[in-house]
Amino acid sequence: MIVVMAPAADAPAIEHVIARLTERGFDVHRSTGAERTVLGVVGPTQELDTAELELLPGVEEVVRVSTPYKLVSRAFHPDDTLVRVGHPGNNEVTFGGEEVVVAAGPCSVENEEQIRRSAAAVRAAGARLLRGGAFKPRSSPYSFQGLGEQGLELLRMAADAEGLALVTEVMDPSQIGLVAGYADMLQVGARNMQNYVLLRELGRCGKPVLLKRGLAATIEEWLLAAEHVAAAGNRDVVLCERGIRTFETATRNTMDISAIPVIEKRSHLPVIADPSHGIGIRDKVAAMARAAVAAGADGLLVEVHHDPDKALSDGAQSLFPEQFQALMDQLRIIVPALGRSI
Amino acid sequence: MIVVMAPAADAPAIEHVIARLTERGFDVHRSTGAERTVLGVVGPTQELDTAELELLPGVEEVVRVSTPYKLVSRAFHPDDTLVRVGHPGNNEVTFGGEEVVVAAGPCSVENEEQIRRSAAAVRAAGARLLRGGAFKPRSSPYSFQGLGEQGLELLRMAADAEGLALVTEVMDPSQIGLVAGYADMLQVGARNMQNYVLLRELGRCGKPVLLKRGLAATIEEWLLAAEHVAAAGNRDVVLCERGIRTFETATRNTMDISAIPVIEKRSHLPVIADPSHGIGIRDKVAAMARAAVAAGADGLLVEVHHDPDKALSDGAQSLFPEQFQALMDQLRIIVPALGRSI
Amino acid sequence: MIVVMAPAADAPAIEHVIARLTERGFDVHRSTGAERTVLGVVGPTQELDTAELELLPGVEEVVRVSTPYKLVSRAFHPDDTLVRVGHPGNNEVTFGGEEVVVAAGPCSVENEEQIRRSAAAVRAAGARLLRGGAFKPRSSPYSFQGLGEQGLELLRMAADAEGLALVTEVMDPSQIGLVAGYADMLQVGARNMQNYVLLRELGRCGKPVLLKRGLAATIEEWLLAAEHVAAAGNRDVVLCERGIRTFETATRNTMDISAIPVIEKRSHLPVIADPSHGIGIRDKVAAMARAAVAAGADGLLVEVHHDPDKALSDGAQSLFPEQFQALMDQLRIIVPALGRSI
Amino acid sequence: MIVVMAPAADAPAIEHVIARLTERGFDVHRSTGAERTVLGVVGPTQELDTAELELLPGVEEVVRVSTPYKLVSRAFHPDDTLVRVGHPGNNEVTFGGEEVVVAAGPCSVENEEQIRRSAAAVRAAGARLLRGGAFKPRSSPYSFQGLGEQGLELLRMAADAEGLALVTEVMDPSQIGLVAGYADMLQVGARNMQNYVLLRELGRCGKPVLLKRGLAATIEEWLLAAEHVAAAGNRDVVLCERGIRTFETATRNTMDISAIPVIEKRSHLPVIADPSHGIGIRDKVAAMARAAVAAGADGLLVEVHHDPDKALSDGAQSLFPEQFQALMDQLRIIVPALGRSI
Description:
The structure is a homotetramer. Chain A is of the alpha/beta class.
């Protein structure tokens, strides 16, 4: 941490700041320039509140220099992390390697026919995981809330029938045991990105985690959320960009494609993209999916429904099976440009 | 809901949209202009996804016209709601009436001396409720997480000693019973504004609720969150503005003072402001507190600590007792301009 | 325009609104529902201020339904516009057709060797236009401000030597005549997107215009700026996405890739992307360039300098010639996925 | 400037960064911690691009520590600047002192009767300056563009008749001479905040400048714009907050009231607020005006029209004279809380 003293700060003011910091066990390096003095603070500065120091007399600005995350930082772990999902020799798939991994399926599982047909369609087009919600957070209390455990059974059956791995959302710590009994990968939704109790419990669940970015979360906060999972013992975390909130109202969210190369530089964790939530309307999903893969995403999470017009949730952003097939065909042309396969 | 057809939309396209809507039980009013046709859709349109209609051929735009909230809307309930907190004849206080109600106290309860001295200080300056956290959401797993039930006991004791009502945060549905046993008003934090399970349970808890605005929540989403509590049976909701996330980095958040007159026009619920979290640094808290009250806020939530430099959390945004006293003195000068008391 | 009356609005309130509108020459269609009355307003409503109507008693909300732009709207002109730049049989290039058109070159022209070598490098890699600034808007008065007319001469000479068309920025109406004497296409920078005097004069300049999106401009405001140029007589406008301002601080701007498919749906004008300004740092430019093209951009504007470490401006976001060559090679793999060439 | 090296950066990488910086004439202080090395860079670092350094091998982050503005910074000039506008002994008024100074009047001057009656009304209520536009930036080419020089004559005449000072907008460097011939203070609109040619010329105009904040400008960029005026020779600059662009759509802009105490801490220049543009609708202007003054604003810029329903521009945000009178009466109650007069 760097404490920048004001040009007008006199010696007693500087000494006072140094005393306060050393009292609390930090080492302080003093650097005196022509115009002002700068103090370097060494120690566990993540416990220090910058605002607190800024209130001391003579302090102009306080700047953190070390990233608050360690376990997920590329600075401390330069090699890419490979996250393996599913069972070796059966439905196993690896995020973060040469393959661009696609998870696809409906927003919610609704009934056996729907999930079987959707699973068959996405597998035929090249998806490696089935996605689908059994527990759904909905803004209206009158909307379809998901099938719960029965949905999990249907998802597992449909995934197994097609040899796909399964990823599904968990909304609450109390659901982890149940969901982990069925799914190969547990998803944390955008609204839960800072639900620390949930993150901590997922750190102990023994299954890989798919962590979506919150609507108003900076990349640093997102990595810090991943740090929570890792600190609790689980380093198998895959990040998922799904759009941030900006002033633009022409799209539901603004998909931050630049987060993909930024994460790649800052963290060793795999990062994928969810163009369906990112753009929110079917006719632009393929464009955003291609953009994410071209920018270097390690995979995609795409909503596909065998009959979107009848979907009970998010039908307008779900692709028809033939649209998904066309998208996969386009991606097969694109990925060699990045030295990858799909 | 209004469906605006494109200028080029022909009769079959228009008929198709009308058929789709009537099939689903809506009434459609057709209005044909020189340039385009506009369809008015009547029925429970909150269940319709605008994006879904926008995908139909010939549709240019779909606009919702009715607000998605009803119970909390001033359009359906023109008179101000008065929210009574505490016990009549003892520590009762009313939000939404002529009095500007101030809740104050430390970020977290830390020990008996701290909470007793803080409670005495805020009451001496004119606060009517004691605030303080026993359960704390923290971004770092290494930070102080709150005292839990022991904290609730200390808060209750300190509030009773001073004749103050008590407001404290509840983070999870499983804590509601416990917290409601001690507190007079239950607070929902910004990160939980869209935790629908929690909102629903608070709708059944029998105590008034203080609902903070989420960091990236629009005013409409905030009122919709209040609608969840009301729909579950509890209309005693007080809204609390505490800053939104914008591009500006000079302040922790951007406190949206304009939300105060906007809420006053759209909803009959009381609205208060939390300048401590809104601005995030002590030396500007009083300015933002005065601004909120001058804009018409029905109350304030202010962090005050008897010794902020020793606080275990948020010390930098906590006022010293004498600063709080000075603020209250300023507010006493200001409120007659709004025909109110404090 | 749609005027939504409040549920509580009585007949005199509704009649008053209708009277005010008909007085001003509008036609009003009244639609009465169970809960509220909705008025459809027909006529030149772009002159009406929605806020003005919202102040009338009984009015709940006013919604615009027709887009405020016409000439640049796809609703009124379904076919793609092709914008031809340069001289037929010589350096002509077409934006909006099958070819993905790349303009490349240094941020600023600095001297003859620099611009000649940069032009040769970008042409060798496949660029069709040379870009480079002779007049530069700089946030510091002490920074390099551009070479002015001498710079224009050098740019023209370098472009001609390589058979490239030339695009360069014009900052002020007084420079248009001069710049149009040298360049094939005139660029409007992001800070000038709402400089209406400049836009109007460019409507009369007889050369194609490259219109960058403002940092805080919605897509609608951007199209409205293009409408200003078109309304003044010039329909040869190419739009250029270059990043918007959001809460994220990890990148200079947030490049809004989703603007590309949105513009494609709303307007017949070509849209290109500037990944150099969009991301602001060299090591992520190629990722964003690939993303833009994969999303459907009609072209790119890329900063390339023959020796970026010595550049007088924006060196950190300029590609080395070999990086640009590698990017073009990647794009050649990608564009067949969109049925295009480069 | 601080250069933070990555934990993995080895000695040659660190030496390379130091060499690059000393080559360019900077002094470098090296500080080696347990985990990483931090370099302090001393010299005219405003010319250094942080992105450029971040590209060097082993560099993790580059942080500016000195503010890029000097002349307008409180760090270099602790005492408040008083900006005197108008003629001593006649219509002179001082911004930045004990008085809260109010400028009021119509958006545009339309005709003699309008401006005379508006001037009389605002003066009767206590305004000290007349505001009104003779040159207007409008988003539609079909809207009223202002009366030009004739408007300036009418404004001057109306101001003189009431003993008021006059502030009006200048849109282009070519208008400065003309406008300065009539007005006592020249206003720069939000869209021109980064029009550096205009700012530089205003630095030489000999009259005080009112500088509005741009819609997407950070406080730092705003102060940097003021630095341009000051660097060109004119230190009589008054800043004016008028709302920023955020995700919230319930209000035209989000008025950033917190900018007022932030500016007060960072700069010695006076800061006022424009609640009319900040909120955009008449019924909430008074609330925001009170908030700004309560937060410590040195003055207000308020739109008042003697008959807003007939205004040619911005009628919906203009106050009626009696509303303005009521607002001034409220402010007279409020300002003693800040030790000020009005």
